[in-house]
């Protein structure tokens, strides 16, 4: 995959960090591919995005997609943590 050339760095930003297993999953922000989850985790490695409403999709072949929407303020730091579930697997309900 190649990064979407329409993606532009904002002048004011918010930061999203990803803690995703497996970390090779692709990350899409507002439908645009921005990289792999492993690129946006750890110290100094967050994804800078424009503040506002953002639709996040994390996907990897053979796994169920993770989708969420966030409303970010300028200079806000946000972390997304998830373990992608293999296709066809079911997660046990909490007791």
Describe this structure in a few short sentences.
The chain has 95 residues and is an all-beta fold. Helices cover 0% and strands 44% of the residues. It has one domain: Immunoglobulin-like (Sandwich).
Low-confidence stretches: none
The N- and C-terminal alpha carbons lie at a distance of 40 Å
Per DSSP E runs of 2 or more residues, the count of β-strands stands at 7
Helix content: under 10%
User: Which class of secondary structure composition applies to the elements?
Assistant: mainly beta
What proportion of the residues form beta strands (DSSP E)? 35-45%
- What is the string of helix and strand elements? EEEEEEE
Report the principal-axis shape: globular
Radius of gyration: 14 Å
Counted up, domains total 1
User: Which architecture would the CATH scheme give at its second level?
Assistant: Sandwich
The helix count comes to 0
Strand order of the largest sheet: 3-2-5-6
CATH domain topology:
Immunoglobulin-like
Quote the average pLDDT.
89
Instruction: Report the CATH C-level class.
Output: Mainly Beta
Largest sheet composition: 4 strands, antiparallel
């Amino acid at each position: 995959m190649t990064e979407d050339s329409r993606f532009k760095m904002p002048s004011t930003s918010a930061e999203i960090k990803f803690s995703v297993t497996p970390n090779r999953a692709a990350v899409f922000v507002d439908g645009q591919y921005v990289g792999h989850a492993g690129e946006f985790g750890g110290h100094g490695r967050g994804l800078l995005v424009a503040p506002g409403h953002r639709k996040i999709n994390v996907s990897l072949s053979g796994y169920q997609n993770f989708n969420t929407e966030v409303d970010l303020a300028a200079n806000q730091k946000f972390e997304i943590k998830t373990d992608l579930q293999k296709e066809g697997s079911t997660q046990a309900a909490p007791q």
